Amino acid sequence: MEASQDHHPSTSSRIGTTGSSTGVGERQRERIIRAATLVFSRKGYDGARVEEIARSAGIPKGNVLYYFKTKKTLYRVVIEQVLSLWLDALGNIAVDGNPEEAIRQYVNRKLALSRNYPEASRLFAMEVISGAPVINDHLSGELRLWVEEKGEVFRKWQQDGLMAKIDPAHAFFMIWVVTQTYADFEAQIQAVTGAKGYAQEIYTDATGDVVEALVRGLGLKRDT
Amino acid sequence: MEASQDHHPSTSSRIGTTGSSTGVGERQRERIIRAATLVFSRKGYDGARVEEIARSAGIPKGNVLYYFKTKKTLYRVVIEQVLSLWLDALGNIAVDGNPEEAIRQYVNRKLALSRNYPEASRLFAMEVISGAPVINDHLSGELRLWVEEKGEVFRKWQQDGLMAKIDPAHAFFMIWVVTQTYADFEAQIQAVTGAKGYAQEIYTDATGDVVEALVRGLGLKRDT
DNA sequence: GGAAAAGTTGACCATTCGGTCAGTCCCGGT
DNA sequence: ACCGGGACTGACCGAATGGTCAACTTTTCC
Question: How distant is the Cα of B130 from the closest Cα of chain A, in angstroms?
Fold first, then answer.
């Protein structure tokens, strides 16, 4: 909940309302953002059509452009929201406590994220595959710092013999990519497994195995 | 090397030539396919522009449409070529021999693939994230069969206590996604690690760690 | 050498796209 | 009742897009 950078309607008034509704068309804004996330996540920025976003939101195209002056503005807002969701979920990895439990929790948290917001995960993946033209700065800024910081924790664990000696950054890549697979490659997994009730079945089945495999792969031990 | 389904020029004559050049414009065809792979892998089908593909191939747009009647035809050819590359690389996992070595080889083979053909990997990822509208049949057909078949091998290993008890399909997902990360998420990895000579540094550094982590994660043992 | 086939090109067309805009609707305040 | 402004809409515009085509050049084959 942040990231506004546009035009006429925004979080400007909001003070003068009766007190109950938080902004009149604020609902519309979120409707549009939700629809845009969906379309952008499937087609990418260039492939997405404003009118399709509008249709998906159930409103005319003109109305979309009323809230977001340009397609690019809308994309920025959407992807920045997705990114902040992603970064928030990175959260804290408990420095103390035992590594195994810490990572187990972290993995589960990320797994839940891509289960609950698969479109967000896909949009993020799309952006990165496209070369991250929009969020590159965020990646080499905030994310990089986060990795360096948390990487130190990994290094400490490794020195204590509680974690396999893997370049911390690559350990993160491995965790991230594995947890996101089930959202990003849903189509492939669905095709291969022939799953019907995808959301429920797969996640429940896979979660356990995957977490264990990761913990094992990273050689995480319980602090004694 | 197959997959032609278009228009006038194709692998029609080829017999009558002097013997040296295998078709005159056959080079062009491949030029175009290479360029198309690049553009499609960054923008996806809808986002890619025929003219951009043409520019990337260094020829006028009209010439591209001469070899491939429509954008869709070109995309089909390109992605089917990528898919066959992918499926070929699946190759055989040695049924006998020790599991650890078998998977180690398999992972290394896939890792090499995404190092040598990162655009192919990205294009495949894009297609799947978009919902695999074109290759869905292939995935639920050939790929699914392959997984079921090779999954049996995994199950046998598991019964012999040579592999952790993970749903075989998910074991494959894990292997695939980890090996593809370095191609698909290159932008992110580059941003986070600040790597300059990406292609060389990262792959050399990561390969070892990743392979070990996977082998460990899948609980693979050497047959004794 | 010459004609047919294959290859190449820029001009051109219909459609679609992102974005603008004038005008309408709906609301609370006075 | 009336006003003013935010919310909304469909018609519209210029630019870009996928695709066609007729003219032209090159290659192939007898």
Answer: 4
Which residues in chain B, range 9-38, keep a C-beta under 7 Å from any nucleic strand D atom?
13, 16-18, 21, 24
Which two three-digit tokens encode residue B62? 């009209």
Round to the nearest angstrom and report the end-to-end CA distance of chain A.
Answer: 41
The answer to whether B188 and A140 have CB atoms below 8 angstroms apart is: no
Write out the two tokens for A32. Answer: 């549009």
In Å, the largest CA–CA distance within chain A is: 62
In 3-state terms, what secondary structure has residue A20?
A: coil
Query: Which nt has its C1' nearest the CA of A69?
Result: C19
pLDDT in tens, A179-193: 999 999 999 999 999
Query: How far does B151 lie from chain A, in Å, by closest CA?
Result: 11
pLDDT score for A89:
83
Say which CATH topology domain A91-217 has: Tetracycline Repressor; domain 2 (1.10.357)
pLDDT of residue B90: 82
Cβ contacts of residue A92 below 8 Å, gap of 6+?
Answer: none
The answer to whether the Cβ–Cβ distance between A209 and B144 falls below 8 Å is no
What are the tens digits of pLDDT across the range B16-58? Answer: 333 334 466 788 999 999 999 999 999 999 999 999 999 999 9
Query: Are the beta carbons of B129 and A184 separated by less than 8 Å?
Result: yes
Q: Is B16 exposed, middle or buried (0-12, 13-18, 19+ CB in 10 A)?
A: exposed
**Are residues B162 and B220 in contact, defined by beta-carbon separation less than 8 angstroms?**
yes
Architecture of the domain whose range is B1-77: Orthogonal Bundle (1.10)
Question: Could you give the 3-state DSSP secondary structure of residue B220?
Answer: coil
Check B144 against A173: CB less than 8 A apart: no
Rounded distance between C-alpha atoms, residue A122 and residue A108, angstroms = 18
Neighbour-count burial for A105-142, b at 16+ CB within 10 Å, e otherwise = ebbeebbebbbebbbbbbbbbbbbbbebebbbebbbee
- Cα separation of B74 and A40, whole Å? 23
As given in the structure block, the two tokens for residue B130 are: 């978009």
Domain topology for A1-79: Arc Repressor Mutant, subunit A (1.10.10)
The residue extents of the domains of chain A are 1-79, 91-217
Average pLDDT for residues B163-170, to the nearest whole number?
Answer: 94
Position of tokens 């960054």? B42
d(CA A147, CA A168): 8
Q: Which two tokens stand for residue A156?
A: 């400490």
Residue A33 φ/ψ, nearest 5 degrees: -60, -40
* Cα–Cα nearest to B38, from B18, B58, B24: B58
Please write the tens of the pLDDT for every residue from A135-152: 999 999 999 999 999 999
